[in-house]
Amino acid sequence: MAKNDPYAALRIKEFNIFLLVRFALVFGWSMQFIVIEWQVYALTNDKLSLGIIGLCEFLPAFLFAPFAGHIVDKKEKRNLFTICIALFSLISFGLFWLTSETIESSLKVNYILYCIYGLVFFGGVLRAFFGPTIFSLIALIVPKKIYPNAATWSSSTWKGASVFGALCGGFLIAWIGVHHTLGIIFLLVMLSLILVFGIKKKPILNKRTDESVLDSLKVGLKFVFSDKVVLGALTLDMIAVLFGGAVAIFAVFAKDVLDAGPRGFGFLNAALSSGSIITMVATTYLPITRNTGKKLLISVFCFGIFMIVFGASKLLWLSLIALFLSGVFDGVSMVIRQTILQLKTPDDMRGRVGAVNSMFVGSSNELGALESGIAAKLFGAPLAVILGGTVTLITVTTMSIKNTSLRELDLSKDIEEHEKDGV
């Protein structure tokens, strides 16, 4: 096996451009999520309203994902990515406009709230396309033998942008207010729209014109549900995000539990992601292709433990440490999952598999926000997080016993085969 090159993917110019585009988008999207959560909670002072935001984004992201996967496999990926970014800029501008002094003074609070929910819903539709498009585009930019390295850098960029987006979002709300923060987000989206043209158009690998939408969806779903490794990896991550996550109610912890204000709100969001990015960068030097399944199970289990610690904490410093450590293990889990999907997915099915991944994991972020909001309303935020972490631990334990294919997974042979083939 060839010596590991931690910078293999970074030696490809288009991949670097892709990372810049992704960083600008996620940085803006991360800040936008925080600003929306803060603004809606400020308008309503209702924990359930935070869950409604998640529902508004979950429903379209989940329902449109299968159709998005079919379209992504049939269309040219660079142009489709460009269209998604352009439409996202409209959402960012709409939120910027809604929070202006003129609009806030002339419209009723409920009307502004409904408009925010509407833009979030539109964002959910775009999310259905973003996931499979990005998943497919990476595979067309880098050769297969460096997929694990590319997945690591891509995930690290995503988490890094989340770190700084979350941190800056909280601080900018305090420094310049919600409206001007949303203006900065709009500029970031426009920057990504300009940068994306540095990536050349890519070939369409699925050229079957006789395949109906229904048949296409069936093929994609059949592949995922018949592969125990892929299905197991997606299920683990979905449960961890759906029940173990608490991002949607960080505003409640910052305001009511820890009395930390908007700055503490930013720190809480950043702590989770900062642990992830540090771990991801480390995995470029220490690949996770050996004993992959065991490493995935252990990382998700540890994530659940530290989320329980966070839920039980009443001290800001302890909460930040717990979130940081949960982020460390979340980072390992994310890199492993992306590597499994990239190596196990056929080229002509990447859009559909990416869509299923979006349904399992991407949409579970929004559904998890709804679950967190409802649980926080019923049981209180601390107990809601503790219960969610417990469900995560039970799921990992069950998966380790029932899914032997995932537990014994080792991807080193897959990498060696691609190196021999020179792809």
From TrEMBL:
Annotated transmembrane regions: 15-36, 48-68, 80-99, 111-140, 160-176, 182-199, 229-253, 265-288, 300-325, 374-397
Membrane topology: Multi-pass membrane protein
Any single Pfam family the record assigns to this protein: MFS_1
Coiled coil feature spans: none
GO molecular function, one term: transmembrane transporter activity
Organism (species): Winogradskyella sediminis
Organism taxonomic ancestry: Bacteria, Pseudomonadati, Bacteroidota, Flavobacteriia, Flavobacteriales
Subcellular location: Cell membrane
Name of this chain's protein: Predicted arabinose efflux permease, MFS family
